[in-house]
Design brief:
The chain is of the alpha+beta class. The protein has helices at residues 4-11, 49-55, 57-68, 100-107, 112-131, 158-165, 170-173, 185-188, 196-212, 222-231, 246-255, 267-275; strands at 16-24, 28-35, 40-47, 80-84, 87-93, 98-99, 144-147, 150-153.
Length: 276
């Protein structure tokens, strides 16, 4: 029996040559590959078969086109996407760096300037995407890559394809598997209408973790965390780190408000408040 790696390699033959697996998450497996036409290293991300079945190839290709149109210095571009032997895949530049998750796991807390700088860059990318009608829906440290210290947001459009395929019912697609920590309350309650303010909540949660060492809500199970996101107030960052400047603490608190209407109306407004 050929392994999934071998099957995928032969399905992509002539276009890409897989070299090795880079990592796997709840939604996809990432491979380092050689782009044979352009003679460059790329990252090929392949959706889990059960997700591919839920989404369907046509929906996937339609949704991911939105991502291909996004061009911003802090958004990881999309090179290619398609289906091969039943696999749904997309191709991105190979970033020789690390994820924000890896850096957080190593350092736990960041210097305040560094945390703010990363957040402002991601907010700038989100503001651009939101103005082009694209909401990320899955902002978390795993989806922020650091390339020479410069943050790049990955996986735009993937969350949209997943939630569109599931009619917004995130848990059915496995979207919330693993990391519900950064979900907005409206995502946690599976609301149909998700706006850019949901991304602002998620980014606020990531900044909270960079400053304090933990996301705003923690728990033993995904269900526990989701219940806290819906019902429990977030403790101010100054509770855990007194050195956080008042404007930064206030910006974090506003970004992670329960009601979308109480948050910043744009990602640019969040960035401005942090730099004030």
């Amino acid at each position: 029996m050929p392994t999934p790696f071998d099957r995928l390699n032969s399905a992509l033959a002539g276009h890409y040559r897989l070299e090795r697996e880079l990592g796997a998450g709840g939604m996809a497996t990432v491979y380092l590959a050689q782009d044979l036409k352009h003679d460059r290293q790329v990252a090929v991300k392949v959706l889990k078969p059960e997700l591919a079945a839920v989404i369907g190839a046509e929906r996937f290709v339609v949704e991911i086109k939105t991502t291909a149109a996004l061009q911003h210095p802090h958004i990881l571009p999309l090179f290619d996407s398609g289906t091969a032997d039943g696999f749904l895949y997309y191709v991105m530049p190979f970033i020789d760096g690390e994820t924000l998750r890896a850096k957080l796991d190593r350092e736990r807390q960041f210097g305040i300037e560094d945390a703010v700088k990363i957040t402002v860059a991601v907010a700038d990318a989100l503001d651009y995407a939101h103005r082009h009608g694209v909401i990320h829906r899955d902002i978390k440290p795993e989806n922020i890559l650091l390339h020479d210290g410069r943050p790049m947001v990955a996986d735009f459009g993937i969350a949209l394809a997943l939630s569109a395929a599931a009619g917004g019912r995130m848990t059915e697609t496995g979207m919330s598997l693993g990391t519900p920590h950064y979900m907005s309350p409206e995502q946690a309650t599976a609301e149909k209408e998700i706006t850019g303010r949901s991304d602002i909540y998620s980014l606020g949660s990531v900044l909270y973790e960079m400053l304090t060492g933990n996301p705003p809500h923690t728990g033993a199970t995904a269900q526990q965390i989701i219940m806290k996101i819906i019902a429990e107030p977030v403790l101010p960052v100054a509770t855990f780190r007194r050195s956080v400047p008042p404007n930064v603490a206030a910006a974090v608190a506003k970004a992670v408000e329960k009601l979308p209407a109480d948050r910043f109306d744009t990602a640019r407004a969040l960035a401005s408040a942090l730099q004030d």
